[in-house]
């Protein structure tokens, strides 16, 4: 195994692990009442990062790019430490999606004391620096331009979500069955001064009382939202028929 194989292998495992961590945190946040914002651009981010990493594997391993530069490799290691700092600072609120938890204060500690969106700065630097490790200057510049365009969309959507503007479009953020089943055993304590108990709940989450299946509740809410539109469709047909009747058959013929 060469140094290039080791570097790219570790980066691939890191990205997969971060996706799993993001999914777990997103499920926990959704159970607490959070919602996702601007989910439409997320596939674009996934496609960009997948293409970036896949292209590196092809150029470095199969096309035998230049040997690694220790200077740029050191810079990349520093970026990984900054990435860990960001993830540790956000803790259970770190995800790869834009998820808003109502009532939660903005994070203003760690790297967020010095710069806004530190995670995006780290990602932008990674996309440029890792190709430089293997001498692929043109590759790093090309994907940096693409990443800048994607981040422009992402940061605008995130800033809009953080400022809670009225024109924001909310998406759905339903918890997975696994996260839901872990909270179905939560009960509300009737004794004053005693904390709620949660049987089989997820550690680190505030217990939530469940009266019936959350999935059924969500389905019922969605059905209630659709009913007015359906009733309007059905009511409009008799109205139209009655207007046609009045037009074709005046009062003297009735």
Task: Summarize, please.
The chain is mainly alpha-helical. Helix content is 61%, strand content 3%.
What does this structure look like?
The structure is a single chain. The protein has 2 domains: 3-163, Four Helix Bundle (Hemerythrin (Met), subunit A); 211-254. The protein has 254 residues and is mainly alpha-helical. The chain is elongated and about 50 Å long. Helix 1 runs antiparallel to helix 2, helix 3 packs antiparallel against helix 4 (118-133) and helix 4 (118-133) runs antiparallel to helix 5 (137-163). Helices cover 61% and strands 3% of the residues.
| Domain count | 2
Structural class: mainly alpha
Mean pLDDT: 75
Helix-strand pattern, N to C? HEHHEHHHEEH
Give unreliable regions as ranges.
Answer: 165-170, 176-214, 228-247
Q: Taking Cα atoms only, what radius of gyration do you get, to the nearest Å?
A: 26 Å
Overall geometric form:
elongated
- End-to-end Cα distance, whole Å, is 93 Å
Regarding CATH, which class of the largest domain? Mainly Alpha
Architecture of the largest domain in CATH? Answer: Up-down Bundle
How much of the sequence lies in strands comes to: under 5%
List the total number of helices: 7
**Overall strand count:** 4
Major sheet: size, sense and barrel closure? 2 strands, antiparallel
